[in-house]
Design brief:
single chain; 316 residues; alpha/beta; 3-stranded mixed β-sheet; 12 helices; 10 strands; globular; binds 2-acetamido-2-deoxy-beta-D-glucopyranose
């Protein structure tokens, strides 16, 4: 009897897990819908081993976002009203932009032009900033650099016990382009200076205290169930509750001009020898072009490890 129960619950857990991918899939992004008239959409991001924001992942994400307005309900409103962005991997939410793309085009990325991939990443951020749906980040893993930029461009952030966030950019002398303006409006200039210039990481509990995320839950199950019920509550209200409030809240900034000014600064810095040296040392510290995309202690503890590339004995 107990054995049967155990077997059944293992099966049920598995079924629930595979259910998460039973909607439409966009490459590395599986989706499923639930709630009133299936108007809440949950994503399950799987670009193993580290959910690196590489070229294909960026295109998958853009394809997914561009699909959101495609189906309308009986009122002519988008049928998906609330979107939960979550990872399928236990240790990573979304990791950094593929930093190999900051090198001159070479065989590693099939001679792809990194500047153009970066511009596509900014198209992705613009979509998150302009689509009418409510975007909720459910962060329960590593969200460094690109990962943190993406959650900053969503509307709300909820964090679980695995969450660790931050911006390594200043280790290379550049800014957390695309994320720093939203972060500053959330946590204020004092904390923004503290975390952005030092590249220190932040975990869920502290992030919730200073407003980097909305709430922290110390169990992953509690995180998911609270996010689901919050999303369902909102999806059962009139659609204009989302659009009218979002429009008013967005007036507090940052504006597109503020964000674009940061991109200009980023481009003026990224070709400097010191920045290129940083990328070379970063890749060497990560084990080289191939080993870089691995779930290693270096990758998990990136913001603790990366500043060591400037230690006196580091070699390039
Ligand atoms: C769900 O859709 C039906 C018809 O398509 C509509 O009558 C109903 O009001 C919708 N429910 C909600 C909560 O939007
Ligand atoms: C999605 O639809 C809204 C109107 O509901 C519109 O304002 C917006 O421009 C559309 N966005 C995209 C990317 O199609
Ligand atoms: C990594 O790849 C880049 C671009 O293909 C190349 O220039 C660089 O020499 C490679 N580095 C190593 C350590 O192989
Ligand atoms: C990469 O793309 C950018 C933007 O389109 C362009 O300005 C630059 O010249 C390209 N670089 C190379 C090496 O082709």
């Amino acid at each position: 009897m107990y054995l049967l129960l155990w077997v059944w619950s293992a099966f049920a857990a598995h079924f629930q897990f595979t259910q998460a991918g039973n909607g439409k899939s966009f490459g590395s992004i599986a989706t499923s819908t639930f709630g009133p008239n299936d108007s809440v959409l949950r994503t399950s991001i799987s670009n193993p081993p580290i959910n690196l924001a590489d070229q294909q992942f960026i295109e998958d994400f853009i394809g997914f976002l561009e699909s959101l307005n495609n189906t309308l309900d009986h009122n002519g409103d988008p049928s998906v009203k609330v979107v939960i962005i979550a990872s399928a991997l236990p240790t990573y939410f979304i990791d950094t932009f593929d930093i190999r793309l900051f090198q001159a085009p070479g065989p590693i990325n099939n001679y792809v032009n990194g500047t153009e991939v970066l511009m596509r990443f900014w198209v992705l951020q613009d979509l998150l900033n302009t689509l009418p749906q409510l975007f909720i980040a459910e962060v329960d893993g590593v969200a460094y650099a690109a990962g943190n930029e993406l959650i900053m461009n969503m509307d709300l952030r909820f964090a679980g016990p695995g969450s660790i966030m931050g911006a390594p950019e200043s280790v290379c002398g550049v800014l957390h382009v695309g994320g720093i303006q939203h972060l500053t409006s959330l946590i204020g200039p004092g904390y923004a200076n503290q975390y952005m210039i030092s590249a220190l990481p932040i975990t869920g509990p502290r992030a919730a205290e200073i407003g980097w995320v909305n709430e922290y839950y110390d169990s992953s199950e509690e995180l998911t169930s609270n996010v689901n019920s919050f999303a369902t509550r909102i999806a059962s209200l009139p659609w204009t509750a989302i659009t009218s409030n979002k429009d008013a809240i967005r007036l507090s900034g940052p504006t597109k001009e503020d964000i674009d000014a940061g991109k200009k600064v980023f481009f003026s810095l990224v070709t400097l020898p010191i920045v290129q040296e940083c990328v070379t040392r970063w890749l060497a510290a990560a084990g080289g072009n191939d080993t870089y995309v691995s779930d290693t202690a270096f990758q998990r503890n990136l913001l603790t490890e990366l500043p060591k590339i400037w230690a006196a004995n580091a070699t390039s």
